[in-house]
């Protein structure tokens, strides 16, 4: 399929990607709503404790730090337009995720000194907060078709008249729970997709503040494929996936790569490393596994945001 322009391509990509993502996200939602969540796992079992206080609809604006001891002593948050301060007896645990945690630390004065000074934030500690952003970058461009009509259809998965779905919806039990084995029988499908993922990327991105204001979202610079080794590793993953498509088993189903030739990559010889580098820069995206932006390390570790 040749796509004439970038707009058409992006629209097509969105459609393909949404289609590919729909199935796993459906199942994920099932897991999240019925099998587990932070609320169910951590709060339900201890909801009767008198030393646990939870405040909802509250936005933390900064971590309070004692300027003499340089220790975190509490947090300031806004609830119902009111600014409230709470103080800790022992310690403050900051767990606002890999994007908001560094934002809060920087707003509290812990971060790259120049960056904070530029935004008018008093520097309490010069530290590489927001640096070292790591993610599981994933290539979404490897879908193969097969000629055998032995696969499951999306409708089968969600059709409430199927016993495994009704059993799950009514009784919260049945085959859907045992996804490892029970879905195996659907594994011979009309198509299959491999998602090569960089599990240990060398590239590092960063989170930076755009304003001295918790309500202004920080900038995310993922810097994917900045390190050439990441490009090489991803291409190696693609070639492994292609070789799987060539196996006797896959060929028995006339397995063929859904060869979408991206206009942006037309200048490169198809299947050359340069072509795949172009393709991965076009069609890779996040798995939302951000981490590393407030790295704890021993004192003396220049990449550590705080001491562990
Ligand atoms: C679409 C998607 C799918 C994923 N799928 C998987 C998966 O299948 N398996 C897996 O292992 N991981 C998955 N992940 C990754 C996983 O969700 C994260 O790694 C994990 O949730 C990170 O946990 P955390 O506690 O560090 O941060 P979060 O879960 O992001 O929690 C941070 C919390 O802090 C709150 N917060 C932030 N700022 C403030 C503030 N200023 N004041 C008050 N509260 C604040 C946020 O509202 C949030 O509740 C997925 C992520 C996404 C987005």
- As a percent range, the share of helical residues equals 25-40%
Radius of gyration: 24 Å
Q: Major beta sheet, specifics?
A: 3 strands, antiparallel
Number of strand elements: 14
CATH fold description of the largest domain: Glucose Oxidase, domain 3
The count of helical stretches stands at 10
Which structural class do the helices and strands define?
alpha+beta
Explain what the structure shows:
With 308 residues, the protein is α+β, with helices and mostly antiparallel strands. It has three domains: 1-34, no CATH class; 58-128, no CATH class; 134-291, Glucose Oxidase, domain 3 (2-Layer Sandwich). The chain contains ten helices and 14 strands. The chain has a three-stranded antiparallel β-sheet. Strand 2 (71-79) and strand 3 form a beta hairpin. Helix 8 (228-245) packs across helix 10. The radius of gyration is 24 Å and the shape is flat. Mean pLDDT is 81; it is low at 1-33 and 177-187. The site of flavin-adenine dinucleotide has 11 residues, from strand 1 and helix 3. Residues 28, 59-60, 95-97, 100, 104, 214, 288-289 line the site of flavin-adenine dinucleotide. GO terms for molecular function: flavin adenine dinucleotide binding; oxidoreductase activity, acting on CH-OH group of donors. Belongs to the GMC oxidoreductase family. Pfam families: GMC_oxred_C, GMC_oxred_N. This is Glucose dehydrogenase [FAD, quinone]-like.
Task: Report a brief summary of the structure.
This protein is α+β, with helices and mostly antiparallel strands. The chain has helices at residues 6-35, 38-43, 97-107, 113-118, 154-158, 163-171, 179-182, 228-245, 248-251, 273-283; strands at residues 58-66, 71-79, 82-87, 110-111, 125-126, 138-139, 143-145, 191-193, 206-208, 219-221, 256-257, 284-285, 296-297, 306-307.
């Amino acid at each position: 399929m040749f796509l004439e322009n970038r707009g058409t391509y992006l629209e097509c990509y969105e459609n393909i990607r949404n289609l590919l993502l729909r199935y796993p996200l459906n199942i994920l939602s099932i897991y999240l709503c019925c099998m587990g969540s932070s609320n169910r796992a951590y709060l339900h079992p201890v909801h009767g404790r008198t030393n646990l206080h939870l405040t909802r609809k509250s936005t933390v604006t900064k971590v309070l730090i004692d300027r003499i001891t340089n220790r975190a002593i509490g947090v300031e948050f806004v609830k119902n337009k009111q600014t409230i301060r709470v103080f800790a007896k022992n310690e403050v645990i900051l767990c606002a995720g890999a994007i908001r945690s560094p934002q809060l630390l920087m707003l509290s004065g812990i971060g790259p000194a120049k960056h904070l000074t530029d935004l008018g934030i008093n520097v309490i500690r010069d530290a590489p907060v927001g640096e070292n952003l790591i993610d599981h970058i994933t290539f979404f461009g490897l879908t193969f078709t097969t000629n055998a009509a032995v696969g499951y259809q999306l409708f089968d998965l969600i059709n409430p008249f199927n016993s495994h779905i009704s059993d799950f919806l009514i009784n919260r039990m049945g085959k859907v729970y045992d996804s490892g084995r029970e879905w195996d029988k659907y594994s011979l499908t009309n198509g299959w997709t491999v998602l090569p993922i960089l599990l240990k990327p060398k590239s590092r991105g960063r989170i930076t503040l755009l304003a001295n204001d918790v309500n202004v979202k920080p900038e995310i610079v993922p810097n994917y494929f900045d390190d050439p080794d990441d490009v090489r590793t991803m291409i190696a993953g693609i070639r492994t996936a292609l070789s799987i498509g060539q196996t006797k088993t896959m060929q028995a189903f006339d397995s063929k790569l859904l060869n979408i030739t991206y206009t942006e990559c037309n200048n490169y010889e198809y299947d050359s490393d340069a072509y795949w580098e172009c393709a991965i820069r076009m069609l890779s995206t996040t798995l939302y596994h951000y981490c590393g932006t407030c790295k704890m390390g021993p004192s003396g570790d220049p990449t550590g945001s705080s001491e562990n």
